[in-house]
Amino acid sequence: MDAEALFRQQCTTAINEDGSANAERLMALVVETYRLQAGKKRAAEDRSRLLVKENGELKGNLVASKEDLAEQKRLFGNVLDNLPQGLSVFDSQQRLMVCNIRFRQLFGFSSEEASPSASLGSLIAKIRGNERGEKKVSRLRDAASEGGHIRHREWVMEDGRTIQSVITVLPDGSNISIHADITEDRKAAERIAYLAHHDPLTGLPNRIRLRESIDAALAGRKPDEHIALVHLNLDRFKSINNTLGVSAGDKILRQVAERIRMSAGAGNVLARLGSDEFAVLQSGRQQPWNVTALVDQIRRELSEPFFRGDKAVELSVSMGIAISPQDGTETDVLLKHAGVALSHAKSSGGNGERFFTAEMEAEIEARHALEADLRKAVEREEFELHYQPLYDLGQQRICGFEALVRWNHPTRGRVPPLEFIPLAEEVGLVVDIGRWVLRRACRDAVHWPKDIKVAVNVSAIQFTNSDLPADVAAALAEARLAACRLEIEITESVLMENLDEALPILHVLKQSGIRIAMDDFGTGYSSLSYLRRFPFDKIKIDKSFVNGIVEDREAFAIMRAIILLGDALGMRVTVEGVETAEQLALLQREACDEIQGYHISPPRPVVDVPDLLSQPPEHTSTRAS
Ligand code: C2E
Ligand code: CA
Ligand code: CA
């Protein structure tokens, strides 16, 4: 294949594979041809001059060279006009030498305007559009082009199109350019950039965009200026998603976004960081007054009910606030501190806001340390179970024990469960701890008399993050303990957080012969409604209800009503936190089934169980009488 045929083939391939990525390749080919052309032309002229001068006989050869040239010119013209891109060649004086039809179309030049020897300056002046952005310049790589370079220019036309020019400037100053309409590519790129920086549900900027805005705000901050970052999280949004469904949840989130947007106003940046998490960046204001006004406004807006059909949904929000420079001068630090303040707002019950303080960070660090220790404790089994008697008022004897976990920390000593169970729940470790508790409790109880039960507390996380029925069955089988001797205590949170998932698990457990108790009855939001959803074997009235039953008629009336309710539903009733003989006597008169509390015994190590069981009931029955 000769050089021209090869060139033709290469051009066709480059043209067929569309896209601007090929522009540079195509350009390289055109440059090559241009050089070939120029080289051949010069050679032919030199040769003809020589021939004319020296040997008239060889005239025929000169004609052949001219024919060659004409054929090449025709071929070149053909290729040019079939290019999907515009092409132009200017000489070292910046006069147009060659261009194709597409070049004229792209820039809207007439044939007269873009005629040979038109100046580059006059053509640029006629472009109906403006040049955009900085020009990218890169050196030409091959040795022959030493001193040449490639430039990229971009034109935004009045009709909205974007045209890109890739200009190869040769060492002598002449240049060859490829021009392409990149409007669609640009739109796609803009769309991708938008998606990378925005949340698709609300259209708000996302975390990446927020970080960029904080970066910019911090970089441009004047010495006396403050920048406030508010991190917001809706309280209990998960339960809204669970009860109303995800699509209703999404609609509410959009309304929430709109209300926060209205409160934040145009000057502040609002972003959505996660499912029910938002952030507002307020810059250039005096603080903390402005951000206080802002969070008040947001709280007011969000306290109005949201409507789903005719159903009103109430929401509340927790907010954490960090202010630069005092709470941090770097984006990461500011974000972290607003998050720390938010988790404090959350852990104090939600529906409130907190400004970041240094003490908060110390607390968080202590928590991290505790978490690390807790992970080790799980591996090393640093736990121990204490047992607190459940006392049957009818039979006047102990009928079971509640297993209560303790953590024997290597340096801190014994850590009570209320200090580590909530943390273990948050970080998921409660699944492993709970599994250990189940196995230990069953293995302990199998040594007790057959009519003595063991009660184990199970957290809501164990219902969602583990196979609870399998764990329970394994613990029973391993200890060879009869299922009827095990009682599982759950709180309302198990049902509140995921009713649809928890109910079938509870039924499976109950069918296997295990008894299910509702713990801390009366402390939650809707203990009563949950009693209708599942046939609990037992309800344990929370210790807060015992306070005052002896002196306060109202407290007594409430206690009596709950005992009657349990009776009516056929559930056993246990009253927790019984500390005095008077309380015991009163409860016995009210036909309460069981009590638990310091009056009978505090939780004790397993070795004390035989003693507790063998003690005559005199200390209880005598005081009860
Ligand atoms: P709970 O299930 O309500 O356990 C009863 C708590 O009340 C125990 O606290 C017990 O020591 C205390 N108590 C018993 N009698 C009295 C009394 O007469 N007066 C007063 N004021 N308090 C009394 P403890 O052992 O500190 O346990 C606290 C909570 O920790 C438990 O509350 C339970 O929710 C959780 N917990 C304990 N062990 C486990 C466990 O193995 N797994 C899970 N998930 N949670 C556990
Ligand atoms: Ca309990
Ligand atoms: Ca309880």
TrEMBL record:
SMART domains assigned: EAL, GGDEF, PAS
Domain EAL: 367-617
Region annotated Disordered, chain positions: 602-625
Pfam family, one: GGDEF
Ranges where the PAS domain occurs: 72-113
Domain GGDEF: 225-358
Tree of life domain: Bacteria
NCBIfam families for the chain: GGDEF
Protein name: Uncharacterized protein
